[in-house]
Amino acid sequence: MTQQHLLRLLLLLVLLPAVGLMLPGKAQAGITCSATGSALNFGTIDPQSGNQDVTATIDYTCRQTFFISLPEQVTLCASIGTGSGGQLTPRLMSDGGGHALQFQIYTDAGRTSVWGSLATAQAPPQLPPFTVPGGFLSYGSHSGSVNVFGRVPAGQSSAVTGSYANLLGDSFLTYDHQTNSTPASCGSGNVVSFQINATATVQKACTVTATDLNFGNVADLLSLANHDGTSSVGVRCVNGTAYKIGLDDGQHAIGGVRHMAGPGGQVIQYGLYRDGGRTQHWGATPGTDTVDGTGDGNSHATTVYGRVPMQGTPSAGDYADTITVTVTY
User: How far apart are alpha carbons 179 and 25 in whole angstroms?
Assistant: First the structure.
């Protein structure tokens, strides 16, 4: 064999394996994918207010495992599990003390389609197919991300204050890949785990409303009868929140005694009380002359008992005062 023939034979031996690696067809283990999930951090919330919405992402990367490869078309699905809450609708976060806070994860910004998992009755979404580029003496790769839309729904009156979490460690990707065409499904043979942490803190919070106290039309304040009336203060506090309702002395108090003002600066004395017998003054010193309670997430009305005692009758006209209601919690 001449030297020239030997050189040609060596070239064939070197080139044929390289050509063999690039033959078209399905590469069973030619692609590997990984994923990470950002946190669904709802922050500090008031479960009595409106829906609390946040957005997170799942970031993924798929790469060739061969040094010399053809482009691969990939179909990928992202399953988000139920985590420690153990249920899908609704998903649950826990404070570790037996209390739960409802939340949900959706595939759309309108928050109408629940994000499921291959391990639940609700199927996971199939992401738009993509191509991982091939390479020669390099590893082709493709990276992308998908938004995850979270919501803590309003109206959870039973939620107590505290920190809540669900680590959702049972989340995973499934994917399939082919050289010549886009896979019709994500398959089930290629699985990679990731985690999304859902967290929220329920803070102490209260809302307050009040109705007017109208003593009506009075002709003679020197009569022997007191003139009584009632109104109400409505308080709604997060479950477990202790609160105190205080009433100030109004805008026209004289020596700590409430008065309504009318024409020409004339006044009518009146009082506000915590009891129907009108013996317990209602003031604004917490723990002394306030009305105390503990919230359960629902609104509760407390009666304000008013009285205009016998006194001299001023000029005819409208008399009024404004009381500030303060809820301390």
Answer: 6
Reference 132, options 171, 175, 172, 173; nearest CA is: 175
Strand partners, 254: 257
3 state DSSP class of 57: strand
d(CA 314, CA 164): 60
Kindly report the backbone phi and psi dihedral angles of residue 83, in degrees, each rounded to the nearest multiple of 5, phi listed first: 60, -150
Residue-wise pLDDT tens digits, 243-276: 999 999 999 999 999 999 999 999 999 999 999 9
Contact status, residue 106 vs residue 112, Cβ threshold 8 Å: yes
205, 46 contact by CB (below 8 A): yes
45 CB-contact burial (10 Å; exposed 0-12 / middle 13-18 / buried 19+):
buried
pTM of the model: 0.77
**Cα(244)–Cα(233) distance, rounded to whole angstroms?**
12
Q: Which of 35, 36, 45, 25 is nearest to 205 (CA)?
A: 45
Number of helices (H), then strands (E), belonging to the chain: the values are: 1, 23
SS3 call for 287: coil
Residues in the chain: 329
Which of 179, 130, 152 has its CA nearest to residue 29? 179
Give the single-character DSSP code of 285: S
Rounded alpha-carbon distances, angstroms, from residue 184 to 62, 74, 76, 178, 190: 18, 10, 10, 10, 15
Q: Torsion over CA of 67, 73, 74 and 75, rounded to 10 degrees?
A: -170
Picking from 106, 200, 112, 88, the residue whose alpha carbon sits closest to that of residue 149 is: 106
Nearest to 298 by CA among 100, 160, 101, 157: 157
Number of neighbouring beta carbons within 10 Å of residue 279: 9
Is 48:159 a contact under the CB 8 Å cutoff? Answer: no
Model pLDDT for residues 12-51, shown as the tens digit of each residue: 333 333 333 333 444 334 899 999 999 999 999 998 889 9
Domains of the chain by range and CATH? 26-202 (2.60.40.1090), 206-328 (2.60.40.1090)
Give CA 56 to chain center in angstroms. 12
